Amino acid sequence: MLKKDKILILYSGGTIGMLKNEEGVLQPFDVSYLIKEIPQLSKLDCQIDFKSILSPKDSADFNPSDWVEIGQLIFDNYDSYTGFVVLHGTDTMAYTASALSFMFSGLKKPVIFTGSQLPVSHVRTDAYENLLSSVQIALLKNNEVAVVQEVCVFFGNKLLRANCATKSSSSDFVAFESYNYPYLINAGVELKVQQKYLWDAVSLNSFSFDSRVSSQVFVYKLYPGVNLRYFEHLVETLDFKVLVLQTYGSGTFLQQYDFINLLKQLKERGKVIINVTQCLKGGVKEGLYVTNSKFNDLGMVSAGRMTFEAVVVKSMILLGRGFTSDDFVNYFLMSLSGERA
């Protein structure tokens, strides 16, 4: 008897599917190995298919072309599946998942990213729980309509909005947190859905995928004693259109004349300057202190409570669409897929 629901699991690499090579170093293996290691998948009431990107890799080696490859695979198979689970390395999972949340439009099915802190071959691996729960969540329906209709990250019993998630630990099984937005589902004995927090995109548009990305984004992190000569040299020599400035606390930054003058020059040259806090929790609050009172005078754009990962990839994607500075700012300040919630 054919099973009604179908889930596509996409393997892109990462710890979950790695084995030690002859040198004792972990490296990605073919997805067929992963299937044999988790036989419980066959007990789920659905058909599960597997695909792999052309060259599975450690997520530290990921770049925008890999985002596009994963997104294209989902787009090409969208009509054939109930939902999608993407197996991805943890180090840059939040970047890839956030990017797809902006590249997709009219998404009405779940796209869930997950992985593990220990390989599936390890006796204490967290791969089983993460993968099996991700598939079960992808199958959730209410009156034949998908419960989850957005890109998410599942880790450590929690389903998080992708563009609100960040990797918080390199050693704990609870490796991801959503500091500024509640979790969507808690996978305990039961799957407890927090319906009011799920993304409800009011869109009549059909599902689409826009793969355009620009790398003309420059990130600079402030720190006490920052050498402004280095900063000046970088902004004068690098080819970029958006400066993502990682500031302190609620968006404060040094008030030295030379620094303020450099920012003014960037603004006059048509560069967009985005103010994002270095803090994991909270966000940028304009004009709260004297040290960020020049915020509006400099034409800086507030990232609000967005994650650093979401700020960077959203900037790259908006630039890829060729927006002018004004249009870029307008779209950046919109919540396109729940990132500014």
Labels describing this entry:
341 residues; alpha/beta; Rossmann fold; single chain; 8 helices; 20 strands; eight-stranded mixed beta sheet; 2 domains
Describe the secondary structure blueprint for this structure.
Elements: E1 6-11, E2 18-20, E3 26-28, H1 31-37, E4 47-52, H2 64-77, E5 83-87, H3 93-103, E6 104-105, E7 111-114, H4 127-138, E8 141-142, E9 145-146, E10 151-155, E11 158-161, E12 166-167, E13 176-177, E14 185-187, E15 191-193, E16 208-209, E17 217-221, H5 228-237, E18 242-247, H6 257-268, E19 272-277, E20 301-302, H7 308-320, H8 325-332
Parallel strand pairs: 1-4, 1-5, 5-7, 7-10, 17-18, 18-19, 19-20
Antiparallel strand pairs: 2-3, 6-16, 8-9, 10-11, 11-14, 12-13, 14-15
Short characterization:
The chain is of the alpha/beta class and 341 residues long.
Structural class, by secondary structure, is: alpha/beta
Question: Could you name the CATH homologous superfamily of the largest domain?
Answer: L-asparaginase, N-terminal domain
Read across the widest sheet, the strand sequence of neighbours is 4-1-5-7-10-11-14-15
Show unreliable segments: none
- Could you tell me the mean pLDDT? 89
Characterise the protein shown here.
The structure is a single chain. The chain has 341 residues and is an alpha/beta fold. It has helices spanning 31-37, 64-77, 93-103, 127-138, 228-237, 257-268, 308-320, 325-332; strands at 6-11, 18-20, 26-28, 47-52, 83-87, 104-105, 111-114, 141-142, 145-146, 151-155, 158-161, 166-167, 176-177, 185-187, 191-193, 208-209, 217-221, 242-247, 272-277, 301-302. The protein folds into two domains: 6-209, L-asparaginase, N-terminal domain (Rossmann fold); 217-332, 3-Layer(aba) Sandwich (Rossmann fold), CATH 3.40.50.40. It is 26% helix and 21% strand. The protein has an eight-stranded mixed sheet, sandwiched between helices. Strands 17-18-19-20 form a four-stranded parallel sheet, with helices on both faces. A two-stranded antiparallel ribbon has the order 2-3. The termini are far apart. The mean pLDDT is 89.
